[in-house]
Amino acid sequence: MRARALLLLLGGAGCSWTPPSIGDPGAEVADPRAEASYRAALEKATQHREVYSALDTQLYCAATYQSPEFREARVRRQALFQTWPQAKLDQALASERAEATQGHDVVLGLSLVDRRFDDLDSKNTIWRLSLVTDQGEVTPLAIRRVGRANQDLRAYYPYLGEFWTMYTVRFPTAVAGKPLVGPATQALVFRLSSTQGQVEMKFPLAPDGTTAGPTAPASPPSPPASR
Fold first, then answer.
1. CA–centroid distance for 33 within its chain
2. How far apart (Å, rounded) are the C-alpha atoms in residues 44 and 210?
3. What percent of the chain has pLDDT over 90?
4. What is the mean pLDDT of the chain?
5. Residue 223 forms part of a structural domain
6. Nearest-5° Cα angle at 160, 157 to 165
């Protein structure tokens, strides 16, 4: 029981550093200022956590909240890689702005020691995902498995190591008939929970609703009572 309690304790607490990346790194854009700007936007919208069982790693995960400002940074990065004309860039930015009104989207990277549980998109998954604010809690509208990480994905999300899986998760914008993000909402809290561990990532919001940058891990939850 002590080892199990330790797993849940460390899983809730998480860590603030990024685990070592395995695999060839993704490409960088040629303009150093554009590269630095994207990296700053990514860091601002991303949280990292780890879960341990005793001293053994149970999972690594990272999530990037697709805020309006990060969506723009990502699209502009793709435009540089693919040398888009201005008209295509303008169209893509408009499309992303429209997408942002349809849901709260999170890109999730996950690396599990036991890959049998790497099935977040399955209706029989052991995992429960949720997004919480001061207005209430919502569960996903959709979870899509993008697949195993590769160099193309790492060009946008460098934390996706060789053995990571990428998912996209969409949450509703309203809870009980009211906006999930209200006038006084200070953060979006993303939760990933199962018997394999509990992870919580907090995305602070600025007064205008944009992400305010990463935050320290939340206090760990109490371990379950012995049976």
1. 25
2. 10
3. 72
4. 86
5. no
6. 120
